[in-house]
């Protein structure tokens, strides 16, 4: 059903898809912007088509040019990767009506998950516990205060169209809420073109835990053990690991079952990730679902010994989920996201990679589109490499990823390698006892005001 | 050019180097077609003229002096978008594709092409059609001049930024 996949993305995820497609014996088409002429994905695909200038809105988000590229190369499927058009329901819909297989969930699911408030309501209906909050878009400050009083402070304001932390504000008092509301509204409007906000109870000391799922077109849903993603700065994940040192077998099974039921209820297909906050008492609350492959998917692959992207392509082609029975987690995996940025100021550091030595060895995986001599374009995200370690136990996995980072050399651009090493050697991380406020505390301790 | 030809008129006006006019370029192009030549190159005292045309069955022109460039392209059917500019002449103006699609030289399968090599074109004149998303997009010249090269065959796919035509603009 699928013979040639156009990869509507760039960077490491484009390579991930190209390699998985090759393993399946499928042809690939890379699309690229003029800023990515020398990027690796253009060299590894069977064919390549330039789709526009550097600016993403004119190239990687240019639906007409991407569809024309599929047409002239006779690609019969499109993989959107993550970011760019991955969660654009209109794009998924156009692919569907043009007879091109969109390797992702149906447009209706993407649309539902794209509206964070609607998704929350749908998941509540489908039986998932959600964080107490407004059941609909808040109308004004008075409405917001009424809801906040009911659920209790602190509360968090969120954008309905949100993502990436934009429009989010934590408020501890009614006065703060009144003050922050218009600011969040403006931020949401400028970031997403939609000022709609909703309110949730703010849970402090919580863990960000997520459950990966895959669904086929026959209605079968399979959930995988959790990923612990609490190491984040400004809602951007830095380090992920699986399993979480905080989640026990009982909670894990409960979360997996709840997600499988909810996903089945809404007819989920393809890869997806359900994100939860888990409080100190290990009560879990649904936050949002990402209807795409995620950056941190490799750690799940490592502990299950599977290839999720290959599975995603197969179910898009209409195959049934066909993993070995008794799929069990085994060992421990940690991923560090290496970004081209100043480790102190977090300012992006594009430029030419003069010299590059990536780590390797048993139990070590690197997903990266970087090479020595490559000019990192300033136009896109700063992810240079995902370094992933796998070992039988958590302490061994930590030691392995530390060794990997210590033996990595990237000359020419600044990276957050030193920051990762500091986090990994901190007591909190070593003990596995960290929540979503970890980075805030860590940076404060590092640079006391 | 034959040595017995009288020197171009402009040479007598005291300007630096030889000059050549449109009529002579057109004659050269006609000669190329007449003799069924794929490429013609002339260089005298700082003036360089290169004319190439697509002749069925001949490989595209490759400069002999080009340094070896690593080829990463693993078999794309498309020529490189904006590759090394072979016609780096002073007055050559490239027309590039503003979109991804299928290139057509004529408004309909049986009609004459919009332009041929040697045609004088005006700014705003339609040069070709690029079909994208089932829409026929007319691509116009953005300069006055003479068409000196047509890089793409009709019905072939083109990518963003790919060179379609070369227009020799007046000095």
In short:
Chain A has 449 residues and is α+β, with helices and mostly antiparallel strands. Chain A has helices spanning 11-23, 40-44, 63-73, 89-97, 107-114, 116-125, 141-151, 174-192, 249-265, 297-304, 308-316, 394-406, 417-425, 427-431, 438-446; strands spanning 4-7, 27-33, 47-52, 77-79, 101-102, 155-159, 169-171, 197-201, 207-215, 221-223, 227-233, 236-242, 270-278, 284-290, 332-339, 351-352, 355-357, 364-368, 375-376, 383-391, 409-411. Chain A folds into three domains: 4-103, Rossmann fold; 132-201, ATP-grasp fold, A domain (Dna Ligase, domain 1, 2-Layer Sandwich); 207-446, ATP-grasp fold, B domain (D-amino Acid Aminotransferase, Chain A, domain 1, 2-Layer Sandwich), CATH 3.30.470.
What structural keywords apply?
A: about 450 residues, Rossmann fold, Dna Ligase, domain 1, D-amino Acid Aminotransferase, Chain A, domain 1, 15 helices, 21 strands, about 35% helix, B: about 170 residues, mainly beta, OB fold (Dihydrolipoamide Acetyltransferase, E2P), 1 helix, disordered N terminus
Topology:
The complex is a heterodimer of chains A (449) and B (171).
Chain A: E1 4-7, H1 11-23, E2 27-33, H2 40-44, E3 47-52, H3 63-73, E4 77-79, H4 89-97, E5 101-102, H5 107-114, H6 116-125, H7 141-151, E6 155-159, E7 169-171, H8 174-192, E8 197-201, E9 207-215, E10 221-223, E11 227-233, E12 236-242, H9 249-265, E13 270-278, E14 284-290, H10 297-304, H11 308-316, E15 332-339, E16 351-352, E17 355-357, E18 364-368, E19 375-376, E20 383-391, H12 394-406, E21 409-411, H13 417-425, H14 427-431, H15 438-446
Chain B: H1 22-34, E1 39-44, E2 47-52, E3 92-96, E4 101-104, E5 120-121, E6 126-132, E7 135-140, E8 145-150, E9 157-158, E10 163-168
Antiparallel strand pairs in B: 1-2, 3-10, 4-6, 4-9, 5-8, 6-7, 8-10
């Amino acid at each position: 059903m699928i013979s040639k996949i156009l990869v509507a993305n760039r960077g490491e995820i484009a390579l991930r898809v190209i390699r998985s497609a090759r393993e399946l014996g499928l042809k690939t088409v890379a699309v690229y912007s003029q800023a990515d002429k020398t990027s690796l994905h253009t060299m590894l695909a069977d064919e390549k088509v330039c789709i526009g200038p550097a600016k993403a809105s004119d190239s990687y988000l240019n639906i007409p040019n991407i569809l024309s590229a599929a047409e002239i190369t006779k690609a019969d499927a499109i993989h959107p990767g993550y970011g760019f058009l991955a969660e654009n329901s209109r794009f998924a819909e156009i692919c569907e009506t043009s007879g091109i297989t969109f390797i992702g969930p149906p447009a209706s699911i993407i649309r539902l998950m794209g509206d964070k408030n609607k998704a929350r309501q749908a998941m509540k209906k489908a039986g998932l516990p959600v964080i107490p909050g407004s059941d609909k878009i808040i109308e004004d400050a008075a409405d917001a205060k009424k809801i906040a009083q009911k659920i209790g402070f602190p509360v968090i304001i969120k954008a309905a169209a949100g993502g990436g932390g934009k429009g989010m504000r934590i408020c501890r008092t009614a006065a703060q809420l009144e003050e922050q509301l218009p600011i969040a509204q403006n931020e949401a409007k400028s970031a997403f073109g939609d000022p709609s906000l909703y309110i949730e109870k703010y849970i402090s000391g919580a863990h960000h835990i997520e459950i990966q799922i895959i669904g086929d077109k026959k209605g079968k849903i399979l959930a995988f053990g959790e990923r612990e993603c609490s190491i984040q700065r400004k809602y951007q994940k830095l380090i992920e690991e699986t399993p979480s040192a905080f989640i026990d077998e009982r909670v894990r099974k409960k979360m997996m079952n709840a997600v499988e039921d909810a996903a089945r209820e809404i007819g989920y297909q393809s890869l997806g990730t359900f994100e939860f906050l888990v409080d100190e008492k290990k009560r879990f609350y649904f936050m949002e679902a990402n209807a795409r492959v995620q950056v941190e998917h490799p750690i799940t692959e490592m502990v299950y010994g599977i290839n999720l992207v290959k599975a995603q392509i197969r179910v898009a082609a209409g195959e049934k989920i066909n993993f070995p029975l008794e799929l069990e987690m085994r060992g421990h995996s940690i991923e560090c996201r290496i970004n081209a940025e100043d480790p102190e100021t977090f300012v992006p550091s594009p430029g030419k990679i003069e010299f590059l030595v990536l780590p390797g060895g048993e139990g070590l995986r690197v997903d990266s589109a970087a090479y020595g001599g490559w000019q990192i374009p300033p136009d896109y995200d700063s992810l240079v490499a995902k370094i992933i370690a796998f070992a039988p136990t958590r302490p061994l996995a930590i030691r392995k990823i530390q060794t990997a980072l210590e033996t990595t050399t990237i000359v020419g651009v600044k990276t957050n390698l030193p920051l990762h090493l500091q986090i990994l050697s901190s007591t909190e991380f070593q003990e596995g006892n960290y929540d979503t406020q970890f980075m805030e505390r860590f940076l404060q301790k590092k640079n006391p005001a | 050019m034959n040595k017995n030809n009288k020197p171009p008129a402009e040479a007598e006006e005291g300007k630096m180097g030889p000059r050549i006019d449109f009529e002579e370029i057109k004659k050269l192009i006609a000669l190329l077609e007449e003799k069924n030549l794929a490429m013609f190159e002339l260089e005298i005292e700082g003036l360089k003229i290169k004319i190439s045309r697509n002749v069925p069955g001949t490989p595209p022109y490759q400069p002999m002096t080009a340094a070896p460039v690593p080829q990463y392209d693993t078999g794309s059917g498309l020529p490189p978008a904006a590759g090394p500019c072979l016609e780096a002449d002073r007055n050559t103006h490239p027309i590039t594709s503003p979109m991804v699609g299928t290139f057509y030289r004529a408004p309909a399968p049986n009609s004459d092409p919009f332009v041929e090599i040697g045609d004088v074109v005006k700014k705003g004149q339609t040069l070709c059609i690029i079909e994208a998303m089932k829409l026929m997009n007319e691509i116009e010249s953005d300069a006055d001049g003479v068409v000196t090269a047509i890089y793409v065959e009709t019905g072939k796919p083109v990518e963003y930024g790919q060179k379609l035509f070369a227009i020799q603009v007046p000095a």
